[in-house]
Design brief:
mainly alpha
Length: 361
């Protein structure tokens, strides 16, 4: 009876929050997110020496992960399958280097002659370019009558190379170690992260993120790799038919550069235009290599790639461009290769956290 007659604690009703208080609370949350993103960017920039090769190793591991999974289904242990994957990657790199060594050394030896030929060809374009003379004079006025002076210390080349070599070797070792241990321990890593998720729904969501990341990145990179090899072969054949020397070299470079959308093809256009100027007598003829490359690249981008990987995996071009600009600004050329896989990983995470979000066309 005493419990029934005991007085209940009074209910305290807080006054509703004003619009200003709600705005300040939301602004504080946004500020924390912005500060976290800025801190992450600075951390990525500061850790480029270690994080860049590790990221590249993980990307290659995701790309070659299906090969390791097939080997493990045949009864091999993860350690042996990871070793086979590393050996396959080394074999591909060595084969690519051996195929390009001879023609690349030939063109490197011809660089002085190419520069001389380019000067002669560009001299013929002097009259159309005279309209830009006013811009040159304005630049000279801005920089002074004497122009810009550039001094080069020739004695620094060997010293710079001696300082750079240990860093490059260390990054190569970090890359191969990351590739091996990522492939060998990917199952243990997944289970360890899933065990940290105490709630069943969170564990289900994290498991789907792992599945989507492995599926999207491996499928995308393998498909794009096959497409780029086919495009490089087509470019090499096309350049050979119009008489461009060392056509297989330019086809291989076209395949490699196509892993970096927009920027890679633009670099190839500049290279092929320079080669055309040195190998053809007329300005129209010098545009033939560029026309062959752009025609094949257009067919690949508009028809082949959407048909192979599906339009559901075709990302918004603006998002792709922003990702490329960000990662190249952050980590240089290596960031260009990591940009699209990093974008796919981000897409897989956000798609599971925010269902219904679409970054496609």
């Amino acid at each position: 009876m005493a419990n029934r007659t005991a007085k209940k604690a009074p209910i305290v009703r807080l006054p509703p929050k004003s619009n200003v208080e709600i705005f300040l609370a939301q602004a504080a949350q946004v500020s924390v997110i912005v500060i976290g993103v800025v801190a992450l960017v600075f951390a990525l920039a500061a850790g480029e020496y270690i994080l860049a090769p590790i990221s590249l190793g993980i990307v290659i591991g995701l790309m070659l992960g299906p090969i390791a999974a097939r080997l493990e289904r045949q009864g091999l242990s993860p350690g042996i399958s990871a070793t086979v994957v590393v050996l396959i990657f080394i074999f591909i790199v060595c084969l690519f280097a051996l195929a390009l060594a001879a023609p690349l050394s030939f063109w490197i030896g011809r660089l002085p002659q190419i520069w001389s030929d380019l000067q002669g060809q560009l001299a013929r374009l002097k009259e159309p370019l005279e309209a830009l003379g006013g811009i040159r004079e304005q630049l000279r006025n801005l920089t002074g009558d004497e122009g810009l002076a550039v001094s080069v210390n020739e004695g620094m080349g060997f010293e710079s190379l001696a300082r750079l070599a240990p860093a490059v070797i260390a990054q190569i070792l970090i890359f191969f170690a990351s590739l091996y241990f990522f492939v060998a321990t990917r199952h243990q890593t997944r289970l360890a992260i899933l065990n940290l998720c105490f709630r069943r729904r969170l564990r289900w969501r994290v498991a789907h993120i792992f599945r989507d990341v492995e599926g999207l990145v491996s499928r995308y990179l393998l498909s794009i790799g096959i497409i780029n090899i086919a495009e490089g072969f087509a470019v090499g054949v096309g350049l050979f038919l119009i008489g461009v020397p060392s056509a297989p070299l330019w086809g291989a470079l076209a395949a490699l550069s196509n892993f970096v959308p927009f920027i890679g093809p633009a670099v190839m256009v500049v290279i092929l235009f320079a080669i055309g100027l040195t190998e053809f007598d007329t300005f129209t003829g010098s545009l033939l290599p560029v026309a062959v490359f752009l025609g094949i690249n257009l067919i690949e981008g508009q028809f082949v790639t959407p048909m192979v990987i599906g339009r559901a995996m075709t990302l918004n071009p603006l998002v792709v461009l922003l990702a490329l600009v960000f990662w190249i600004w952050l980590w240089g050329p290596l960031g260009g290769f990591i940009a699209i896989p990093a974008l796919l990983v981000t897409y897989a995470v956000i798609r599971n956290v925010v269902p219904g979000l679409n970054w496609g066309d």
